[in-house]
Specification:
Strand order of the largest sheet of chain A: 9-5-6-7-11-3-2-13
Radius of gyration of chain A: 15 Å
Helix content of chain A: under 10%
Distance between the termini of chain A: 21 Å
Distance between the termini of chain B: 23 Å
Shape of chain B: globular
Radius of gyration of chain B: 11 Å
Oligomer: heterodimer
CATH class of chain A: Mainly Beta
Structural class of chain B: alpha+beta
Strand content of chain B: 25-35%
Order of helices and strands of chain B: EHEEHEH
Number of domains of chain A: 1
CATH class of chain B: Alpha Beta
Number of strands of chain A: 14
CATH topology of chain B: Histidine-containing Protein, Chain: A
CATH architecture of chain B: 2-Layer Sandwich
Number of helices of chain B: 3
Largest sheet of chain B: 4 strands, antiparallel
């Protein structure tokens, strides 16, 4: 029973994309690496599919489609920021499959990103996945290495 | 209560990155800080999702209000931030 006790109440944030999870401090943008928006991981994507990392509500998709804000049913507020400085692409390279206010399950497809296009335009597709309401969560831990979208937990937290 | 208005210069508006910086600045204020734009808010300026939820675009005018013992210096700090960054 001890095993179950250990993870009691722990909630997970799954990888939103397939690729490699890296420490947020390695993301080449001071606002993310400095944890200004909150704490999390960066995903260096190897595939362009973006899935919901949690069961929850899509609070806001950026008009330029480069970021998705989600509020998890577990109480975490999460930003998935698709690439660095990609606001400048004005939506090009992104295809959105959800609407603001929509409830989704972890693993549901949110977005498709044309990673090659983004790289070709000179942008880094590394995708910060961040909990922005760090004051509302506790015992946050991160996992790094190879991850599969909607399968591998990259963040664990308690409420 | 101390308030000021600011016209957003960033053509992309108050998207995640600048909103995060603005919220960080507000969080460093002892005052209660709220922000609104015409037809939306006021919302808690220390809460990122609330600020992003305003959907403030380039050219929109936001109103920032500080309330508390340090409201004058906090409003000044926020005004400087806005002028320099958003």
């Amino acid at each position: 029973m001890r095993f179950f006790q250990k993870n009691k109440g722990k909630k997970v944030v799954l990888a939103p994309m397939t690729g490699k999870s890296v420490p947020i401090t390695e993301v080449p943008d001071a606002v993310f690496s400095g944890k200004v928006l909150g704490d999390g991981v960066g995903i260096e994507p190897s595939g362009g599919k973006v899935v919901a990392p949690v069961d929850g509500t899509v609070v806001q998709v950026a008009e330029t489609l480069h970021a998705v804000c989600m509020e998890s049913d577990g109480g975490a507020e999460i930003i998935i920021h698709l690439g660095i400085d990609t606001v400048k692409l004005k939506g090009k390279g992104f295809t959105c499959h959800v609407e603001n206010g929509q409830h989704v399950r972890a693993g549901d497809v949110l977005m498709d990103v044309d990673i090659d296009f983004i790289r070709g335009e000179g942008y880094n597709p590394v995708t910060p996945c961040i909990i922005t309401n760090m004051d509302a969560v506790k015992d946050v831990s991160f996992s790094y290495g190879e991850v599969k979208a909607g399968k591998t937990a990259v963040i664990e937290y308690g409420i | 209560m101390h308030r000021f208005e600011h016209k957003i210069k960033d053509p992309n508006g108050l998207h995640a990155r600048p909103a995060g910086l603005f919220v960080r600045c507000a969080q460093q204020c002892g005052s209660e800080v709220s922000v609104s734009k015409a037809g939306a808010g006021p919302v808690n300026a220390k809460h990122l999702f609330s600020v992003m939820g305003l959907g403030a675009c380039g050219g929109d005018v936001i109103t920032v209000t500080a309330e508390g013992p340090d409201e004058v210096s906090d409003a000044e700090k926020l005004r400087s931030f806005c002028e320099a960054n958003i």
